[in-house]
Amino acid sequence: MKKILVLPGDGIGRDVCDAALPVFDLLQLPVELHFGDIGWECWRRGGDPVPEETWRQIERSDAVLLGAITSKGKLEAEQELIPELQGKGLKYVSPVIQLRQRLELFANVRPARHLTGARKPFHCVVIRENTEGLYAGMDRKGIPASMSDWVRHPNIDRSGPDEAAISVRLQTRFGLERLFRYAFDYARDNGLDRVTFADKPNVLRDSGQFAADIFHAIAAGYPGIGADIQNVDAVALWLVRRPESFGVIVAENMYGDILSDLAAGVMGGLGVAPSANVGNRVCYFEPVHGSAPAMAGKDKANPAAMFLSIALLLRHLGFDEAAARIDAAVSQTIRAGRALTYDLGGNAGTAEMARAILQALRRPQALKRASILCIGDELLNGSVVNSNAAEIGKRLSAAGYAVGLQLSSPDQLPAIRAALDQCLGQSDLVVVNGGLGPTSDDLTRDGVAAALGLPLHFDAGSMAHIEQRLTGFGLAVNPQNRRQAMFPEGAAILPNANGTAPGFALDWQDRRILVLPGPPRECLPMLDASLPPAPARQDAPVRRWLLLGVIEADIADAVEACLRDAGQEAAVSYLWRYPHVEVSIRHDDDGEPAWLDAVETLLRPHLVSRDGASAASQLASALAGRAWLLDSGIADANLGGLLPAPAAGDADPVRIRIDASRELAPPWQGVLSLSCQIDNGGQRNSYRLDVPHRGAEVADYVREFFAWSLLRSLNEAHSHTESEPA
């Protein structure tokens, strides 16, 4: 049984702990959670932010989970002590620094991976030295005489030694050797093929060379892992531009501090950034977002970083499968986009996002996402309608993919590359369409190769097919046609039975890329032949209501109030398809959700169907075997065409009268009042509806109102008959 000490700490540290700790109950792992005190309140009341009892608890634990810590400046720290402790010479030392130094946690590990955003997927980690460097504590105001022989600068002479301050960047062979060994071991154990030492050796020449010699000596013991030294400012630049080019970035304390927050920003922000502090004793794990006192208790903090920090902790304790499940649940929640906190562009609170992550753990989705990238200037300037995107989208949806992105790119290499990066960052399958011709503006193959860092190779078999097809139609083979036989290295060539340009497929980092020519008669059959089916997925249940006589704004607030009152997770969407509104609620509850009765009561007066079927499409079966008589006061609505042939021999036909307050003709303005009276089996029902007299399409509204009124009357008569005593 592993013992985990939870130290919620200050501010939002308590909020994210409360939100994420239920994950331990859900995973049912052999761990015990114990709780201790740390942080600003401990300092304020006791003069030490890490009480001695907490140290004893740490020594009895296998790992520590820290929420967040508030730290303040020297004067504020003294002023916030209780009066009895002020003036006692107590010195505030950050709990984070105390933990790292006393437990010899020499490496701060900050993984960064692609979770969201329009960029190519990446996975890298910044490993920061924790105990030396500029944060070693050798920082002082005033330069003593004993240091004056080597601490020299013209401005010291101008200001005087007492009006200067100095910090020492400490680096030792012992500290650097263990740091670099850990970095290379981490790369090896996590499948990363490169370690980059970020320093400033061109300026800090002596200490830089000292560290470089040690780095190269350690690297020699790991021949399968690339090793390089780069200036820290260059690393910062390329971490923003191309984070996928890095594996492990290792740096001294301050450089690592800066680079790790930069990596967090590239990842999506501090709200999704976990960390581990490791050494040879008890290790601690924490989200890096800080305590944010102004947000504490307001249900605003992003809990994702705490979940991901728990995953790091569990992996450290040997629970790799559970850690992977948490990572996947966080990714699934962020990609779904329905329950995200403000920092990720959503409006969910801490508790709501945490519940969504926990539900993703309970119900993991094998959801495959797809993007469509169509290439060609003609698609953007309007000279060609992009019908391919719609047809490709239909086929992808039918194959089980969730299409989340459609892009069009001009015939420009940088634009194609950037668009493909965006698609790769959001999708498991990318379908690229167009730009495979022989001319200089057909740049798709070049853009794909550049985006993936692959060379182009000539394929003689494809060239033979191109020549055979052209000569078969009496056309000349030009040197430019050779471009159509060039493919990125490793591509599988897709034959084109209806044109000269073959397509190709590539697998890259668990993603599939299909590249197809532009003409529909060529690309669509090729897509049908090469589209990999998505794995079957267990979608969350969805309830649907097709409504008439309302618009979204009429019902949205009331529907969402029903969901809030029930206190259950659900995602509601509204689709306006004239003349209907379709309401869909996706929920994570197995069985009947608590909000269902309230929503049913609210929507029933406007209900057409629960399966998306219009009233007009249901009318023929509802009136089958019945006679009817229609008296229509509305010209040009073709209402009789909605009805089946009346049954012969029915002595009690359904009698229908429908009227409108005005003709279905211009001017298109104001309100059209509709009424329908139905006599059925001795029962009379009357229905009314006012609709905008907006245009010729109002005839569609009239027909649907007519069918809807008749269906309701028939259903009410049926219900009345069933309720009569035998």
UniProtKB/TrEMBL annotation:
Signal peptide location: none
Domain MoaB/Mog span(s) in chain numbering: 371-537
Residues annotated as domain Isopropylmalate dehydrogenase-like: 3-357
SMART domains: Iso_dh, MoCF_biosynth
Keywords attached to this entry: Oxidoreductase
Top-level taxonomic group: Bacteria
One Gene Ontology biological process: tricarboxylic acid cycle
Gene3D superfamilies: Isopropylmalate Dehydrogenase, MoaB/Mog-like domain
Keyword Cell inner membrane: no
Family listed: Belongs to the isocitrate and isopropylmalate dehydrogenases family.
Protein name: 3-isopropylmalate dehydrogenase
